[in-house]
């Protein structure tokens, strides 16, 4: 044997010994893992990154496949001889039974601690009778649900394990539009897949969830498909900055990636996870008001100097906002001295404040600036969901206002019951021209017009009178829709 061959064998033996020690093949107790291993050095040529393999190597072992089994009532087992009464009750003839059917959903999750704590989406595990987790090295575990939070679409699971690979949660507030990110998950059940893209936007609200949901998405063009839900969005430092949750697609629920995906930011996920681990539920503050953004037309209709702040469209009686003195048409410009420009930011800021806390609100009312203090209630997702009512009145239009492109009629007792209205005030929209000004502004069949330009509306004559006085100016309409009120601005045709 040559000297070179002998030396090579020694080197290989030493490498093998090193690997064996790391995998505990030589015996001895493994040292407990307290922190994830630092990521390998970036792969670059002449200072230019040529691969993300180092980031994938560090992060992918912590991303898991999740299978959720749901038992549902199946079809009734028929008699072997059909429904012939002659055979019923005969010896050996069993009564018809319903065979339970098994539905299996597939998603992704992220291990966030060495003891097996996993973050995923609520919709991945909701209603599951059994949850199975498969790690990247093909080990399987039965997972227990620590807690779920439907408003944020997050869930925390636990598997029994030690020294598991995991990801640390980064600071999503520090993420910038344009940052490179990787999405890791199990799309369409084909196995772990890594895709790359950038942060396309921050603070997104998709409107795909109901009014009890809280959204503050990171938008990314990293390809995300069905099965990626609950998977990881990581930065190039190997930190978890988001939990992948939704996509927008022309195909709806059955559609695929078109480069518009949404991830729950890690800071929101961290807060929800910590509360679920500590209390088993998430507590949020609630002011008890409905707010909306202020458009240029709305500002003109209300004689505002600009579009700063959010417009209060409704105040729930007996709740924190009502007790603090808030009124419909108030403009909230700041919370605790911090400026508010967006209704979604306002809603998340209130929800992120513990119930029972006092907040200071800067309010503009009739041109005057007020300072109000409110003690927050606790958010009740079930109560908020109950305010949504999708029923519509099928009545025949009786009155028409052609300048707006809609048909109106008084609110009868029957309509009030069907639309879940607390009174018979206003006029209900029974039909509208899909190309008319009202439809263009967002009005819909079943909406009830309560006010126009601050004037109560009880008849079509009231509508015509306001139209004559307004001229070419935008009309500010107060609308009752599905148990809540909103303002919409319409430019008459």
CATH homologous superfamily title of the domain at 172-279: Trypsin-like serine proteases
Distance between the termini: 96 Å
Average pLDDT, all residues: 83
**Content-based structural category:** alpha+beta
What's the shape? elongated
Going across the biggest sheet, name each strand in turn.
7-6-3-4-5-9-8
Which residues sit in consecutive blocks of at least 5 with pLDDT less than 50? 1-31, 79-88, 388-400
Strand tally is 30
CATH topology of the domain at 172-279: Thrombin, subunit H
Percentage of residues in strands: 25-35%
Gyration radius over CA:
29 Å
Biggest sheet statistics: 7 strands, antiparallel
Share in helix: 10-25%
CATH class of the domain at 172-279: Mainly Beta
Q: Explain this structure to me?
A:
By secondary structure, the protein is α+β, with helices and mostly antiparallel strands. Among the domains are: 172-279, Thrombin, subunit H, CATH 2.40.10; 285-385, PDZ domain (Pdz3 Domain, Roll), CATH 2.30.42; 389-490, PDZ domain (Pdz3 Domain), CATH 2.30.42.10. Helix content is 19%, strand content 33%. The protein has a seven-stranded antiparallel beta sheet. Strands 24, 25, 26, 27, 28, 29 and 30 form a seven-stranded antiparallel beta sheet that branches. The longest helix has 20 residues, at 3-22.
